[in-house]
Every structure is written in structure tokens, then in C-alpha cells.
Amino acid sequence: MNSTTLSSSAAGIGSADSTPPRRNSKRPKYSRFSQQELPACKPILTPKWVIAAFLLIGAVFIPIGVFSLLASRDVVQIVNQYETDCIPEGSRTDKVGFIRGPQDKTCHRTLSIRRHMKQPIYVYYQLDNFYQNHRRYVKSRSDLQLRSPENEDETKSCQPEGTLNGTKAPIVPCGLIAWSLFNDTYEFSRNKRQLTVNKRGISWKSDRERKFGKNVYPKNFQNGTLQGGARLDSSKPLSEQEDLIVWMRTAALPTFRKLYGKIEVDLNPGDVIDVKLQNNYNTYSFNGKKKLVLSTTSWLGGKNDFIGIAYLSVGGLCFLLATIFTVIYFIKPRELGDPNYLSWNANPGDH
Amino acid sequence: MDSNSQNEINESSQVHDFVHKSLSNRSISSSKNSGGHSLREVNFAELASKPVRHGSRGADSEGFSSSYKEMNDDDARIIHINDPVKSNEKFEFAGNSIRTGKYSILTFLPRNLFEQFHRVAYIYFLVIAILNQLPQLAVFGRGASIMPLAFVLVITAIKDLYEDYRRHRSDKIENNRLAWVLINDEFQHIRWKYIRVGEIIKVSANETLPCDMVLLSTSDSTGVAYVQTTNLDGESNLKTRYAKQETQVSHPESKMISGLIKCDKPNRNIYGFQANMVVDGKRISLGPSNIILRGCELKNTDWALGVAVYAGRETKAMLNNSGAPSKRSRLETLMNREIFFLSVFLVLLCVVVSVCHGLWLRRHKGDLDLMPFYRKSDYSGGKVEDYNYYGMGREILFVFLMSVIVFQIMIPISLYISMELVRVGQAFFMIRDDQMYDETTNSRFQCRALNINEDLGQIKYVFSDKTGTLTENKMEFQCASIGGVDYSNGKECVEDGHIGYPVQGGEQVLRPKMKVKVDQELLDLSKRKNLEEGRNVRDFFIALAACNTIVPLTVETQDPAVRLIDYQGESPDEQALVYAAAAYGFTLIERTSGHIVIDIQGERQRFDVLGLHEFDSDRKRMSVILGCPDKTIKLFVKGADTSMFHVIDKSINSNTIKATESHLQSYSSIGLRTLVVASKELSPILFEQWQSSYESASTALMGRAALLRKVATNIERHLSILGASAIEDKLQQGVPQAVKSLRKAGIKVWVLTGDKQETAVSIGYSSKLLTSKMTQIVINNNSKESCRKSLQDALLMCKKLGTDSLAAEINQLALIIDGTSLVYILDTDLEEQLFEFASRCNVVLCCRVAPLQKAGIVALIKNRTDDMTLAIGDGANDVSMIQMADVGIGISGQEGRQAVMASDFAMGQFRFLVPLLLVHGHWNYQRMSYMILYNFYRNAVFVLVLFWYVLFTSFTLTTAITDWSSVLYSIVYTGFPTVIVGILDKNLSRDSLLKYPQLYGAGQRQENYNKRLFWLTMLDTIWQSVAAFFVPLLSYWGSSVDGSSLGDLWTIAVVIMVNMHLAMDIIRWSWITHAAIWGSVISTFVSVMIIDLVPLLPGYWSFFNIAKTELFWMCVLGVVIGALLPRFVIKVVVQYCRPNDIQIAREMEKYGNSRRDSQLEMNQIFDPPSR
């Protein structure tokens, strides 16, 4: 019986046990990718390349540095700090009280032009120590509301300047940013002749066209208990309130300038500019400084020597490094790929 | 405790019942054999759960005591045969439906989330996301903060869902398979899932078993069934299982017995089973040979009846269905230390921010109300109250928490995901490497553990098994010494088979499957029946053919007239011997439990198997009692020489014994495995004595194994020697070269084997582990004191030889130690001395070691040093060592798959270790360590840029960089190139790495990832963040720039800088690398543009406005050059002035010309090289 069983089932076993035919081979398919042999470039930092790289960086950076520095030097800017000077002597002990009081806050400053200023001359106000990037502040706005009148109730993010004193009436534009809109004003005159300040086009076109609605009008603005800053003309849509638009582009740093307007005539050396300014804005509660800035512009922007100096120093450093490396390569030449440098060749028996 | 003898002699997990019908119709059952089994048991299941004394004889006593153990009702399950209702009424046993799928539709979400959140990193992520949902702490937009976590969770969930779907599908197929089950006294076809414990199931040939069952009856009258356990342990040979004679019926439909089975609770030990069966009031004990397991296939048996004892998830197959043990790589452990530093750093940043914020609040306490940018008071509600102000203490706390949220990516969570991806990529390349594909077994490299790829680059010690790992474990009968005469001249191969005695089997010719070289002289001699020598030779070959547990199977061939006999058995040695016997005309053609049929040179003879004593590791031999055709009763014994010479009667044939001993000496000196064969004729009185003691021993309820061993020892005495056989265990291809490469790479190769010392040493020589230049120190001792003394001597000698490296180079030491000595050394105070000495040796050979000792030796090194250990083996006896070592490699070869199942990696050949370690290990390590450092840098630099900005916002955690950019930074902006470089970059080509194995030292010395590098990277990070932050800041200081624009500048600058940093360190630029780097820079620009195209975000259009200006681009260029300059300079200086080996090799790859190549060849050959 046993032998018959053996042979009867032998076929099955045979098929299971016989060596697998080659066609089932699990040999991995060859490809350059799977064998990690893709063609590749293997750059090696040879002395030639290193020196060339340093020279190249130097050659690129030094001219850029020189040009930047020249551009920055070309910019003429006049800075006038006025937050203390524009408080009458008697009130300087209580600046906050003065600024919040009903007194006339007109103040006269004179600026004398030393170098020729080519138009357009940009008029900025600069605030120091004003944290427009404070977390409470930057979040306190409603971009939805700014865009279209349907969303005027979207004031949740605007607290505590979202709705009018305890009512449900929304403030448009809401939020701390809009509420604290800068409200000092400047009037310039040269030789008793008024210099017009062009206040159009000081904001980004993209903001005017797509961020601030053409049919959104200020509502309940600055009607609360506490007045923060400028009032808005409620007959003009937000898209035309350029001061607001500029202000709402919150500054990156606690010291910042914002464009006030442009003077579109040249100013000559010796000119004396009278500035009649309304010192309304309260920076006294946090020791903020206010400055009036008149500045021309260059391809690089305003007056700032840093980038030029930085480029010059990096470029110079690279030239220096190139020299140092040349010296090293001469003093201590090493043939690349010399097997004698392999540790086990260098000192046998130590591996 | 001699594990190798498992190979030398069949250790076989199957146990025979011997039934001799002419003498008695009652069954005599042998059961659990303690030796072989307990070894396996301990390896398999108990290693993890119990503290194991390495080197003690614990393994043996374990099995021993378990046979004494009376089964307690509490931990047993009781099954009523053929009465599923009663079986299940008291306890609800699991049904037979299986669910490997983890989830159902309802439970998927909670369970999957629960499992995913087992990772600490995810919890950190979640806590931060939750914190961010609190209105006071909302730093990021809600969507932005949840997205990364959600992204990862969803991806993983989808992967899990897909896998689970596939499992469900296969479960469904499995559950709906059909089986014949006895219901109401007739067999019905029912689905597997409805099978219940206690039911009787009929299985036919070639069917898969639906559940674990105790065999009741088979088509074989003696109750034998053959099963193939490929699905369970991968071993493709047939195993024999037995039904008890009490339950054996001749026909499946005949009257069914009823009874009671008391067995173990379900456990995962597939080699252990203990039960009692009560049938007709008789108590029968059952062992592992009486149970057939789910997943096995019934072969060679028409039908088998069994009673279901474990079903469904309680079956042993299902209980064993768990993956490989998870290990954590060395690099990851180190990385976690660095992550701790980073968390300290993170907390530090947060403390700085919150303290500064507190100070700021205090200074401006009076002004807060009116400050336009703070406005503490809320006037809108009629009465004045504080708006969002909760007092100093809480404000500081909130700021602290917010800063944790903002700086969260300081802990690089994305790193965990990138590492996972990189490892998958590396595994892909390892699996696909055609240099690690084994043609002979048609097997690819397997990555079973995915998280220790990089450990392969740091191995310092390789512990290798010998048999099947260094050698092929394909045994070939080489020569024999019979009656004191050495027959080792036979070299001509039998091709045409006319000498090889084809056997007539019915109409067809039967022929052994394997051909063996024969010695013509011996062949001629074997045909002379009348000569004394001829008889001796015949007995010798009969012993070889009979004294084993081989099952012959016939296999069809293409030629219908010829069928092959395939000898199935667990021991390759036995197979070799049976094939050898067949070549000399002693062909085993049939084996049942009661008799065997041997075709002796064309003449079929039937031998009754009256008794069989299994191999066990104490006796180191096995024996069989045969009733010969000439009515004599003979005992044949074969075993290891050491054990055999104790039991051979020295008085008879003393010359033969001496000659045989010297032959054995010479056989093993050329690396052959030897066995001694002896026999004795039993007188009827002696036989009867034996029979009665055997019967009482095999029915004993307690200590059966010990009793059986005693019976065997009693009969195996005063034997007369027949001869000795020598089997060649061939070295695997390329082993000597591989060993040489590994040694050159600074890896210490230790061989741990169960073999004899002589065999081990000879393999050591042939595999180039040992050289004649080495000083061999041998420790073979039998007591602790002598061990102590030898170790002290050895250490003294070591000191005398000198400690400096030069001396070590000249005086190479080899330690050869045996298992007996290790018993006295491991786990005692001598361990320390052994370690001290062994670590100075170039080679260590441990012979005659037990599996647990192997693990003990690995532990000896692992626990005392930081060096990485790798264990490689192929058999069950290597499992403990594989699990103990840092990296375990299984050879998927001859000896079954247990080693593979326990391993982290599996491959076909030992020599693949070289490409695996030297090439892939090196790459993996270098890639992974670079990737980790780079990830730390990448995230820290971003966090620091955020941090510097916070210092300019009165410490209020405003970020100029948009929320979305912060979230996308580590995923989209910089994530992709990291992974690509982690997968694809290679510092050196495969050829260089293989040519100079010494380059592997970089990993061993932890050159690519260490504390120094970490802190240097962090210094660099601080500088780069300063450059990236302050260049734009100072360039725009006092200008009218708005936050979003400057934020965009920072985003772009940091991303380009970080990508250029990576680009600077990339060694090989393939098109994929280019695509990844430039692609991610471009995608950053695109993302920033898209973000700035949303009119509802405050940063609308800012990128377009600022990118118009020259200053923007000058800042970007300045940041990138300025930030990377120091790193570049240091890199150049180090590469030029203090080049490491890898750098030199890289240069050689590029500039090495032919002249140098030839010079190197010379260096390679003439070692040591001259300068």
C-alpha cells in the first residue's frame, strides 16, 4: 500500500520540488538606475577651481559693491526729527496730555537743502520704536472687509476696534491698524511759494485695484471713545484712501518709513523749505520718535551703505582667500589622488 | 549541547513510533525528545521572554523539565473529540475564521490613528497643533498648523488602508476555502471559517490544512502522514507525523471514536506540543509529532483524519505571524541624543523670548493702554476692560507656548519621515543589486528590517556560523574507512549509471537523484558477499542506508521509463550518506514506520524496524534496531567519533579501531565531517530485555525523554566498529576572498560553530581566516580553574608579544576555544578576561558551541563595547545569535528558514556580505548621517531666522515669513532634495569601495556623524542664520519695506541658501539630483508667488513688488555667498590639507591614471605596501 501511495503522489511532489525553471528567475532587472550607476558629474574642489571661484566671486562682488556704494552716496536725504520740538516748551513735561488735548498743534520746521535734489523727491514720515509688527497689531485687521461691502460684518479679527461702542455696527475699516492711521500732515513751501505734494500713486497699484474695494466706504470710523489717528473721508472709497493703504502695509521693523507724498520739482542747494506740520499723532505714549524725511532715490532705493560695504568686504575677502590659497598650494603642493596619502599606505600597520 | 551534531547526525524533529505487528499489536509510542527540540524551543520562543543563562546547559534542562510537567487543568484546554458543542460550551475557543486585516470600516479611523500616534514625534506634533487651536495661542492659521500632521497621517493611513484591503481580500479567500468536516456522522463540505474546535476534519493529499489538528488516523495503516511545512517555516522537505494506533481506523467513514484531549493553551512554539488524549478510558500522551498545523500541506498520504484543537487566530501559524523584531539603528540612537540637545536649545530660545517679553511688558506697563499697537483696553463694550490681556504671568506663559509653536520645527519631525523614505530607497537598491542575487537558490537580497540600513556601514565584528554560511551545507560523501581500510581514491564520477545500480521499480527504472563519486575498489569489494571484508562493507552500507530518518520519494522525469528517487530528510549529512549508499548499490526505496526496503545490488530486501533511538545532543548518536531478512536482529549505530569511541568495544578489532582513528584524524584535518558507524548483533534475550524497557519508558508519563535516553544508552554498548564516513562540506563560492576583504576593512570575523575543533580549524584555514603566520591559542578546558589559568596565560603572552599596533600586525593571534570551556567562562567573572583577550585576537574560532552560547558570545562583545556586531547564520541554531547581534543576517539556503525569519536581512551567499557592508553599508551610513546632520541644520537655520525676527517685534512671535511658507518649508521647499540625496548620492564608486576595503573604516570610526560634527554644524547654522537674517535686515533698515515683502525675501534667501549648502556637499550630480535641487528652488518661487496671489492675505502681491527691485536680488546673492563662505573655506582647507581616505579615493577615481593603477595593483599584491 505504501509503495502505491508513494508513486501516486509522486507527481505532485516532483513538481513542487524540482528546481525552479529559469524563466521564474528573480534576478533583478538590470538598469543603470537600480545599480546606482547613473551617469553623473563628480566635481572635485581642485586648487584651480577653488582659486577661480574665489576670483570670480571677488570680480563680481567688488564692482557691485562699488556701484551700490556710489548709488547710496548719490541719494540726498534730509531727516528732521520733530516729535519733541513740536511740543511747546511748557507742555513738554506732559507730552501725552498735550497731544491728546484740544490745542492747536501746528508746528513750523525749516529744512535747508545742501545738495541738489532731483525730482521726484519722496516725502516720508519715519516712526521709530513703533512696533507695527507687534502680534496684537498685525492680526487686527480684516482683509475680507476691505475688499467688498458684503463682508463688512467680518470684524471678528479686528477686536478691540471691530464694532462701534457696544453696538453691532461694524467699523469700516476695522482693526487697530486702520484705527491708528498716522495723522500728522505736512505742507511745504519754498520762498513762500507752496510746493505741491503729490499724494496720488504713493500706494501699490495692486493694493488699490484688488485689495481695497472700490465700493467700500468708511463707516463708523474713529467714532469710538478713543480716537487713534486720522479720520477718513467717508465719501471716498477705500481704494482711493492712499494714506490708509500705505499704512495698512504694515512695516517689517519697528523703525520704518512710510511714503507721504512726492514733490515733483527739483530742489537746489541753498533752498530753504518751510514745513508747516500738524503734530497730531500720539507717539509719546511709547516714546516713539517721529521724523520727516525728504529723499531722492537711486536704482538701489534709499540711502543705505550697508549692502555696498557688505559686497565690497565679501569681494575683498574672496580676493584675499584666493591669494592665501595660491600660497598654500605653492607651499604645500599635494598631488590629487596620490595613493600615498591613504592612511593605510602612509603608516602601515595602523588600521 | 553540541549543536552541530544536529547536522552531523539527524537531529530530526520528527519522532517515530515503532510498531512491530508480528510482536505486538499495541502501539509503542515515543514522544518528545528533549535534546533537539528543546534547543529549538528555546531559540524560538523563550529567548525573548525568559532570562537565559548563556552558556549554561539551561536549554537542555528546559526541555527536560517540561516533560516532567504534569499538565495542569488551569493552563490546558480540553477538547471533546467529535463534539464541538461540548468542546466550546465552557470556553469560547476561537473559531476558524481568521482576520489578518487589522481594521474594519468602523474601527479603521480610531485604531489607525491610535497606532500612528505611538510615535512620540507625532504626539509632539499633535500637542503643538492643539496648542495652536487655542485662541490665545493661535500663531499660525488653523489650516496651516494642522496641515503637516494631517498630511503625514493621511499618507500613512492610505498606505495602511491599502495593505489592509489586500489582507482582507486574502482573508476572505482563505476563510471561504472548503474542507470536509464530520457533521452528524457524515463528511460535509463546509467553509473553513465555520470549522470549530473539536470537529473531525478529513484532509486529502495535497490539500492545505485548515487548522491545527491532532492526527487521529491516516490512510497509512501505521498512521503515518507526511506534511510539507513550507508555509510555516519554509523548509520544503517532508516531515512525518503520526496518528496514534488507538485512534487509527482503516476507513475514514468508519465509526468514529470519541474521547477527550487535554492540551496546551495556544502558543507560538511550532515545534512544541504537549497533550494527553483519553480514548476508551486509556490515557495516551501526545507530542509534537502527533499534531499537524494549519498552513501545512498533506503530501504523500491519501487522507488523514484529525480533530481540530486550535482554530483561527489561535493556530500556531497565526500566532507566529508577526514580523521581525524591531531594532533601532545606532545612528538613530545617536540622533536622538542630538535631538535632546536641540530640544534644550528650543526651550532656551523660548525662554529667552518669553523672558524678554516679560521685561518689555514691565517696562511699558503704564503705556500699554494707549500704545496704538498694543491697546490693552477695550472701549467697545461700554465699560473699559482689558482686551486679550491676562496679566503678566499668563502673558509670559502664552508667549512661551507660542514660541514653542513657532519654533516647533527645531525638532525636525520631517526628518523621521525622510529617514523612512530614504531607507525604503536604500532597501530598494540593496534588493535590486544584481551582485547580491544568488543564482543557485534564485533568491534576491531581502530587507526584513527597514530601520537599521545604516548600521551596515559601522560593523566591527562579524559572527559567522560555519555550516551553511561559510560552507554550502551541500554534503558530499567523499571517502570512507571501512574495517580499518581507507577508501578515498574514488574520484571518477558515475555518469552512465550502470555501476550506480538502477533499480527496477515495476516497469520503470529508479535512480537516485544525486550522483556520487564511487571508489571502484570499494565497489568491487561490496559485491563480494562471501569475503569477510565484503560482509563488513555490506553491513556498513546497510547501516548508512538504514540508520537514518530519510524518506525516499519517487519523482517523475521527462523520460517515462526513468524515475528518480529523491531522499527527503532534515539532515543534509544523512541525505549524503543515503545517496552514497545508493551509489554503491544499497538503495533505500521505501520507508514506513514499521519497515524499510533496501534494494541491495538489484535484490530487494525488507528489514523490519524494531526500534529507533533518535539522535540527541547528549548521546550524539542515533541507533536503529533492524530485524534482518536472515532473521537476525542487528543494532546499527552512527554518531560523532567522540561519543562512538566510548561505546565501541575496544577489545574487538583493536587494530581496526586504531586505523580508523588515524583515518578520522586525517579526514577532519582536510575539513571533512566524519561519522563513525558501528553495529552489534542482538541476541533474542537482549532484544526482549530492551523491548520491555523501551515499552515502559515510552509509555511513561513523566520524564519520558530521559528514560528513553537511558534505554538507548543501555543498548548502545559493546559495539563493534564498522567504519567511518567522511563528508565534504564545501566552502561557498568566494568565501576566502570575502573573509580577506572583511578583515582588510577592519572587521573582525569570528566563527562560531557546532563543529569539531579540527573541522573548524581546517575550514578556518581554507577560508583564509587562519594563516600559518598566526599564533594559535587553544583553550580546551573542563573546569573553571583551568579556564582561568589558560586565560591568564594567554593574556600574559599577549602582553609579552607587545601591545603596539606594529607588533600586533606581525604577531597575529588566533583564539580557538570550545563550548565546554565557554560553559565555565560565560556568565562568570572570567568573561571579562575572555573579552580582554579575545578583543586582541585577530581571529576567534569557537567550536562545539550551543546556540545559546553563540548568543552569549555576541553579548560578550555587544555589552562591553560600542562596536557594532553582525551575526550571520542559516540555521535554527543561529536564531539566538542573529537576534542578539545589532544586525542579524540570515542565509536563505539549505537549512530552512528560521534564521531568515529572525533576521534583519537575508541573502543567498556569505560572499554577499562584502558588497552589502563595504558598498551598501558604507553608502547607507554616509548618506543617512549626512542627511540627519543636514536636516538638523536645515530646520535650525529656519528657526533661528524666525527667532532673530522675533527680537525685533517686541518678542511677540510675529513671523515675517508667512504661515504657509513656514509649513511648506520642510516639506516642499527643502524636503525633496534631502530625500533624493539621502537615497542617491554616493561618495565613492562601488569599484573603489571594493578595491580598498579599508575605506569602510570611516563608518567604524563614526566619521560622518559624531558630536563634533554636530556642534560644528550648529555653529555653522548660527552663522548662516545670522547672515541670512541680518543682510536683508540691514539692507532694508529704515526703509519703507513692509513685513510681507521682507518675509518673502527671507524665505527665498533661506531656501536658496539651504539648497546651495546641500548642492555644495553633493558628490555625484546625476540628472535626478539636478532636478531635485533646482526643482525645489523653482517650486519655492512658485509657492511664494501663489501665496502672494491670494488677495485675502496681507502679503498680497508683495513678492512681485519686491522682486522688481535690484536690492532684493543683491540680498539673495549676498546671503547665499556670505553664509556659505566659511563652510566652503573650511571644506577646501580640510580637503586639501587634511584629506581623509575617502577624499583621496575620490580624487583617485577622477584623476588616477593608469600608471598609478598599476602601482596600486602591486601594492595590493605585495602587502604591506612600500612607500
UniProtKB/TrEMBL annotation, chain A:
Q: Which InterPro entries match?
A: CDC50/LEM3_fam
What is this protein called in UniProt? ALA-interacting subunit
Q: Where found? A: Membrane
Where do the record's region annotations for Disordered lie? 1-34, 142-164
* Keywords annotated in UniProt: Membrane, Transmembrane, Transmembrane helix
Query: Low complexity composition bias: which ranges?
Result: 1-19
- TM segment ranges: 49-71, 309-331
Q: Can you cite an annotated GO cellular component?
A: Golgi apparatus
Q: Which family does it belong to?
A: Belongs to the CDC50/LEM3 family.
Q: What is its main location?
A: membrane
Q: Name one Pfam family in it.
A: CDC50
Its membrane topology: Multi-pass membrane protein
TrEMBL record, chain B:
**Cofactor dependency:** Mg(2+)
PROSITE patterns xrefs:
ATPASE_E1_E2 (PS00154)
Q: Name one GO cellular component term.
A: plasma membrane
Q: What InterPro entries does the entry give?
A: ATPase_P-typ_cyto_dom_N, ATPase_P-typ_P_site, ATPase_P-typ_TM_dom_sf, ATPase_P-typ_transduc_dom_A_sf, ATPase_P-type_domA, HAD-like_sf, HAD_sf, P-type_ATPase_IV
Q: Which residues bind Mg(2+)?
A: 465, 467, 874, 878
Q: Does the keyword Zinc-finger apply?
A: no
Which stretches make up the P-type ATPase N-terminal domain?
79-145
Q: What is its EC number?
A: 7.6.2.1
- Positions of ATP binding: 465-467, 574, 615, 638, 673, 753-755, 848, 854, 877-878
- Protein name per the record: Phospholipid-transporting ATPase
Originating organism: Erythranthe guttata
| Source species taxonomy | Eukaryota, Viridiplantae, Streptophyta, Embryophyta, Tracheophyta
